[in-house]
UniProtKB/TrEMBL annotation:
It comes from Microthlaspi erraticum. Pfam families: TPR_TEX10. Gene3D superfamilies: Leucine-rich Repeat Variant. GO terms for cellular component: nucleus. This is TEX10-like TPR repeats domain-containing protein. Residues 482-840 form the TEX10-like TPR repeats domain.
């Protein structure tokens, strides 16, 4: 047998001195166990007084916390986004801190002007918007001249930049500068025109992007519109307080004018030639209707308007014998510009495109009207333009045209009509005048078109201060003129007081026509009010409400009122009549009328009378009616003599009396007016009106009186009641001094005193009437049982006593009434008898009052013995 092997003994493990650690590829070895840790941990020490935020406290900053200085520095950063954000930050800072602009405006301009030539489009746009919305509006009240002088070198540099986009931004920004400061163009006219010529000549970008050309052309048109010309509708004259700036500064110095004018005129010739060639480049687009879009229309419109402004300025220089556009340029205008009229011989066009063609043809027609002033044009070409003018006036070109577009075209053409009428034959003259008359009659009274028609009418009748046509030279034209003039007064009434500018224009025209004697030819029409009736309605319309008279005249501005009154002076030459006078009187009585205007009306009519335009009887009637019907209405709780109307009426009465004294010998004038004045007396007018009439009589009468017996009888009936009304209206106030009371009464008493001094019979009879009043009321008190009736009788007796005492207080009149002492004694007896009367209508207070009155009257009566 095989012996089995014994089991192997288990080997004992041996101790390991170093353990080998396997590392995976790419893992970082851990630091050694005995490695020194060099990491340092610390906390920041915060010192509040040293923080950046603390340094900016109280300083204007943007939303990102940047100051103006920091933002200006960032506008030069190499990164365009930072530059753009800096400009936006400046805009934000100005919004919240507007004072920063005023404080640092020159430093801001000096730094920001570099961005005109910035190579990034977004930066240039932000720069433009910053000046447009913030910088220029904030400095509009300042003198922008120094600011512009800082900008212009950089603008000129940008205009010569190699990048077309930078150049266009330069022209766009210059346009913005000129809008805010128009004299900029006059200061740099030659250089600017040279730069515009250069960029428009380089027309390689026309077809690719017409919007770029539009930028340059719009700015050029605006600059050319600033050239001074004969017309008053240039854009430079619509700039408010800037319109008085000198547009061409080189015209101020005569020594330098010829040199600078020569350079500028050469540039103008060049620019006109360039614009005409530019227009020719667009002709294929015009003829190919599919390529004629809005951008093309804008460019062509700017081109034509620019040429028109240059022609207008050329006309001005022709007047001054300084030619700008030579024969070569004129020939180019005829062949390349005007010969292309009309641009749309076919009317079968879409609405918007048809309107564009109409606008362009209108501008071409304006240019034709300017050129026709100094050059003879071919007959066929003239006929085409005249037909367009006539059709436009008649409104026959309507396809695609809005109402506003048609009206703008009419506004553009109307100023040239007067000179055009001089250059056409009789048939065309009649056609155009007839079409113009239709425009004048059909447009709204308050429209700008009506204003333009009024201006045209003046130039058609009296251009340059001289009558253009007489009935002998052209009766047809005179008939049209008469028809226009006859419409003016009714137009005034339609306008009322709501449109003062239009009203002033019409009144100025009427005044000019009156000065030149052009009103007499006005016809009258049965279906319409006459010229004079319409003028009367203007001062006093028939539709006046209630007692308030006066037409739109009373509520017009002072300037319009003065024009109307000056016109009225000339209108009275041959057309003044009693109905018109009545209308003016009603206007004068209008409580809305200011006192100064009232006095001015009296002055104007009296001047017309002195000039022989108003008959003496009509003028007398005006003055007397004005005084007799004027109403003095006191305010509530106020005496009539204390009201403003009373002061106005006093001044008016003085003026009327002064006018009467200037109209001839007093007694003779009184002889004419005596009956009229006494008739007004018999109507028992109000206290103030009665006083005024008495003053008029006294101003014309003399001592002894020249009044007739019938007039004396009328005054005897009137004066007692008038005197009693004085003391009734002016009650004696114990708190006020007797002197003030006397002075108040004196105004109303003086005319009576003058009449008493001139007629002893009048004095005696008036005192008898007052004594009779006292006697009648004394008897009534003794028998009456009604307390109210008794109180009225007692008051009437007191008033008579007050009148006698007032007459006694006047030293001169005291001598006059001494001869009638017996009548005063009878009044005293009646007063004394009432003190012991047993009438039940008399109270204890009433008897006490009678006792005081009796004592005062007794003292006065006794003094008459002296």
């Amino acid at each position: 047998m095989v012996r089995s092997k014994a089991p192997a003994k288990k080997q004992q493990k041996k101790a390991i001195d170093f353990k080998k650690i396997k590392r995976k590829l790419g893992r970082k070895l851990p630091p050694a166990k005995n490695a020194t840790n060099t990491e340092i941990k610390s906390k920041a020490i915060i010192l509040p007084e040293q923080s950046v935020g603390a340094e900016k406290s109280g300083i204007a900053t943007s939303k990102k916390g940047l100051t103006l200085k920091e933002l200006l520095q960032q506008t030069s950063h190499h990164n365009p986004k930072v530059r753009k954000d800096a400009l936006l930050g400046i805009k934000d800072l100005f919004k919240h801190y507007p004072g920063e602009m005023q404080s640092h405006k020159y430093a801001i301009i000096q730094k920001l002007r570099e961005r005109v030539t910035d190579g990034d489009k977004l930066v240039r746009d932000a720069f433009y918007k910053l000046f447009e919305a913030d910088i220029f509006p904030a400095c509009i009240e300042d003198n922008l001249g120094p600011m512009v002088s800082l900008l212009m070198p950089y603008i000129f540099s940008a205009m010569a930049d190699s990048s077309i986009d930078v150049r266009l931004m330069a022209f766009k920004f210059f346009h913005l500068v000129v809008k805010n400061y128009p004299p900029t163009f006059s200061l740099y006219a030659e250089k600017i025109l040279e730069n515009y010529t250069d960029i428009i000549q380089k027309n390689h970008f026309y077809v690719q992007d017409k919007s770029k050309l539009k930028v340059a052309l719009s700015g050029l048109e605006h600059c050319l519109s600033l050239l001074p010309c004969d017309e008053s509708d240039t854009e430079s004259q619509k700039k408010g307080h800037l319109q008085n700036e000198t547009l061409l500064a080189y015209e101020q110095d005569v020594a330098e004018e010829s040199v600078r004018f020569a350079h500028v005129s050469e540039r103008l010739k060049e620019i006109v030639g360039v614009l005409i060639n530019c227009f020719q480049d667009f002709i294929p687009l015009i003829r190919a209707r599919g390529g004629f879009d809005e951008a093309s229309f804008d460019c062509i419109n700017h081109i034509l308007c620019g040429i028109r402004y240059a022609i207008k300025y050329s006309n001005r220089m022709h007047i001054q014998r300084q030619a700008i556009l030579d024969q070569e340029t004129a020939s180019m205008l005829f062949k390349k510009l005007l010969a292309s009229f009309p641009l749309n011989p076919d009317n079968n066009l879409p609405g918007k495109v048809a309107e564009w063609y109409f606008i362009l043809n209108t501008v071409l027609t304006e240019t034709f009207l300017e050129v026709s002033k100094w050059s003879h044009l071919p007959t066929d070409l003239c006929k085409r333009f005249l037909e367009f003018v006539e059709r436009t006036l008649l409104g026959k070109i309507t396809r695609g045209n809005s109402k506003s577009t048609h009206e703008k075209s009419l506004l553009a053409l109307l100023p040239s009509l007067p000179k055009l009428i001089l250059r056409v034959d009789h048939d065309w003259r009649d056609n155009i005048l007839q079409a113009f008359t239709i425009v004048f009659n059909d447009c709204k009274p308050d429209s700008q078109l009506k204003l333009a028609c009024i201006s045209t009418i003046r130039d058609l009748i009296i251009p340059n201060g001289d009558i253009l046509y007489s009935s002998e030279s052209d009766p047809t034209v005179v008939d049209y003129q008469s028809a226009w003039v006859n419409k003016l007064p009714s137009l005034l009434n339609k306008l009322g007081d709501k449109h003062p500018l239009s009203t002033q224009a019409i009144l100025q025209l009427l005044l000019d026509l009156g000065r030149f004697g052009c009103l007499n030819a006005s016809p009258t029409f049965e279906e319409e009010p006459t010229f004079e009736e319409s003028i009367g309605s203007f001062f006093n319309p028939l539709q006046g409400k209630g007692d308030v008279s006066g037409g739109p005249f009373a509520s017009l501005p002072e300037k319009a009122q003065e024009l109307a009154l000056c016109f009225l002076f000339y209108f009275t030459t041959d057309n003044f009549s009693a109905p018109l006078l009545e209308s003016i009187v009603s206007c004068c009585l209008n409580p809305q009328l200011k006192p100064a205007v009232l006095y001015r009306i009296v002055e104007i009519l009296h001047s017309a009378y002195r000039a022989g335009y108003i008959q003496i009887t009509d003028h007398f009637s005006f003055l007397v009616t004005l005084v007799a019907r004027f109403k003095v209405v006191p305010d509530e709780g106020q005496l009539a003599m204390e009201s403003n109307e009373e002061e106005t009426f006093k001044a008016l009465t003085n003026r009327v009396c002064s006018c009467l004294s200037e109209m001839g010998d007093g007694p003779l004038v009184l002889q004419i007016l005596e009956k009229i004045l006494l008739e007004q007396i018999t109507l028992k007018p109000a206290l103030d009106n009665g006083c005024a009439i008495l003053r008029m009589i006294c101003a014309l009468d003399s001592k002894p009186t020249r009044l007739s017996e019938s007039s004396i009888t009328t005054l005897i009936e009137f004066l007692p009641e008038y005197l009693i009304d004085i003391v009734k209206s002016i009650p004696e106030d114990k708190e006020k001094s007797s002197y003030l009371y006397m002075q108040t009464c004196l105004y109303y008493l003086v005319p009576c005193y003058s009449l008493f001094d001139r007629s002893s019979r009048l004095t005696e009879e008036v005192l008898k009437r007052m004594q009779s009043i006292v006697s009648e009321n004394t008897k009534a008190l003794e028998s009456v049982q009604d307390k109210e009736s008794g109180r009225n009788s007692l008051n009437l007796i007191q008033h008579v006593v007050s009148v006698v005492l007032l007459m006694h207080n006047d030293v001169k009149l005291r001598k006059i009434i001494s001869s009638s002492k017996s009548e005063i004694d009878l009044i005293l007896q009646n007063v004394v008898s009432l003190q012991s009367s047993g009438s039940q209508s008399l109270t204890v207070e009433a008897k006490h009052t009678m006792r005081i009155a009796g004592e005062r009257l007794k003292i006065a009566s006794n003094s008459l013995l002296v």
